[in-house]
Amino acid sequence: DDKLQIEYRVIPYGDNLRLLVARDVTQIQQINQMRRDFIANASHELRTPLTVIAGYLESLEGDLDSSAADLQPQIRQMRQQTSRMQTLIEDLLMLSTLESRSNKQPQEPVAVADILTSIYKEATALSGEKNHMFALDIDHELLVRGSHKELYSAFSNLVVNAVLYTPAKGIIRIRWYEDDKGAHMKVSDTGDGIAPEHIPRLTERFYRVDRGRSRESGGTGLGLAIVKHIMQRHHGLLNIESELGKGSIFRCDFPPDLLVRKSDDTATSQ
Ligand code: ADP
């Protein structure tokens, strides 16, 4: 809509004065909306042709007769790259859905313990020969109001990153607990760690500390941007602490008013 949009800020000025700053952000918001629409449409349009290409490549790979067997590596490469593009497009689409304001936040009580248990199983498989040690410390009674699908995606992104950026035999710890500030989902790893100058930029789209390394691991560079948006939609925050060479802690903080205890689940949910 082309309504005038004004952003206000109150700035303390001396001991008992306040400055009120009003800024017309109509045009900025329109441009942002155009950018969001463009990304959503482009990703959507790219999805179908890619699905077709991926399908044909898959059957081609299976149908090669012995005379064409030496094409196998190239076809496998094409399939892998196509699959990377598909992941990228799904991530871009997910980000646009998260950003669109018309997309309301579901308020179902979400069993975080169940989510973390399945993610833990997936992570063990992904860890494979790296043989990480996983430590789980999960409050099974603690639920949070929100979207099951989004929280799954956010937590999975963090745990998968811990697996990808932690060398063999490292320790990955997953916690879900409550304290006086709210509830927290915390993933700590004894991995590569991140230098302080990178930390504030990690949640920017396509920001990667080491492009080559991240591409190799199959990352899109959109994971943490997605986590940040999902946390914002749950009135929460993503907190990152890390030390180069020692490891990282990614913590999702949820405010107390979103929390539900399993015992009073039926009483409070409609
Ligand atoms: P990617 O798809 O590249 O993993 P993300 O947005 O998930 O993108 O992460 C952005 C960057 O943050 C990664 O490329 C990596 O450099 C860094 N990173 C994320 N998680 C970790 C971690 N647990 N340990 C070290 N570095 C990490």
> What low-confidence regions span 5 or more consecutive residues with pLDDT below 50?
none
Largest beta sheet: strand ordering: 4-6-7-9-8
Quaternary status: single chain
Number of strands: 10
Tally of contiguous helical segments:
7
The helix content, as a percent range, equals 40-55%
Mean pLDDT: 91
What order do the helices and strands follow?
Answer: EEHHEHEEHEEHHEEEH
Using the CA coordinates, give the radius of gyration.
22 Å
Hetero groups bound?
Answer: adenosine-5'-diphosphate
Percent strand: 15-25%
Distance between the ends:
34 Å
Largest sheet: 5 strands, mixed
Structural class by sheet pairing and helices? alpha+beta
Q: Give the overall shape.
A: globular
EC number: 2.7.13.3
Domain Histidine kinase: 41-258
Catalytic activity: ATP + protein L-histidine = ADP + protein N-phospho-L-histidine
GO molecular function, one term: phosphoprotein phosphatase activity
